[in-house]
Amino acid sequence: MSAAAAEYSFTRLSQAELDQICLKHERLMKGIPGGMRAKLAWCDLSGLSLKGRVLKDADFTAAIMVDCDLTGAVLDGSNLYCVDIQLSCLKGASLRRVDLRGACLRGANLEGVDMFEADLREGAMAMPDKKTGLVYREISERASEAAYANLRGANLERSKLTGIQAMKADFTDAIMKSCNLSRANLKQAIMDNVDLEGANLSGADVSGASLKDAVLIGAKTDMWRVSQTDMTGVLTDKPVGQDITDLPYGNMLRQHALWVSTIGKEGTPSVFDKADLRGLKSIKGFNLAALSAKGAVFYGLDMRGIQLQGSQLDGADLRNCDLSGADLRGARMAKVRMDGANLEGAKLGALMIAKDRYMPADLSDARMRNVNFTFADLRMAKLDGADISRSNLEGAQLKLEALENVTCMGLRGKIAE
Fold this sequence. Notes:
Layout: H1 3-7, E1 11-12, H2 15-30, E2 43-44, E3 123-128, E4 136-142, E5 242-243, H3 249-261, E6 275-276, E7 350-354, E8 357-360
Parallel strand pairs: 1-2, 5-6
Antiparallel strand pairs: 3-4, 7-8
């Protein structure tokens, strides 16, 4: 602590005092008389609870919030400039568009936090002068720190993380599209399955980090350091397997559609095994029943309303695909990757192949984290070993017993059994 910081004493609040401030802020947000904006700048809130509190646009400038409970709190648009939030729990909290410049997040639990467009760049720290009450003494500019922080499944899309110190932080499954990570220190960070599409990693240091199965499509990586970095399965702009542009896909799809519509009398079934289909951009509404695309890459395709009944999709990459309204009954999708996909209203149940004979959709060992399953039909689907953590199951048709052998941490929504 600097000499100027030592001279200035932070206002220590009790839990009762903090609760009163929160109540007044919530009254203000609801337009109820007696409300007042929460002004917690230069306050010491260490060890206190803000669990589930709605404190949009509150002022926490330079506050000490070490070991606080902010589980599920809503702090959208708040000022957390140079805040010290070490070791605090922010699981499932919403910090959209917050100012976190110069903040210290060391060791904090930010699993599943929503930090869309948050600002975590460097921040210049200043202290009020106790003698005059007017003069501010500039201390130093410091980078935001998130070393050892847990950011698994966090939404950091379009956030500003220039120069952030995040050594050994865990970003597994985080959404970091169009994120600015230039000059960031990410040494030995865990960034497995992170979506960094369009992100700026220029000058970043990811030495010794793990980026297994990460998405780096359109990412800027000029002058970045990747010594001993694990980049197994990273998806870039380069085609994976057979490039779709090397195949007569237009004719193949027409022949497949003809084969389906004539029940096999005409046309030819298409085979896209291990092909990179991203070049198709959209296959919205196509009837591709019984398609074989094992190990194929569909990443980000518009597949709304597509018919893929009985298809062979084992090991395919369907991350971030829009499959709303899709018919996937009876499809074989063992070990498929569908993280971030939209399956709203999709049919993922069993396909009737004869009287009293059904072929269930096979999603065994599938990785489907952060998927939108709202109003999807999952009746009779095989889910053994699947991972649907942090997914939305609002209104989905599914028996609870079907989740017995499924990894389902942080699920959202109410199932319609």
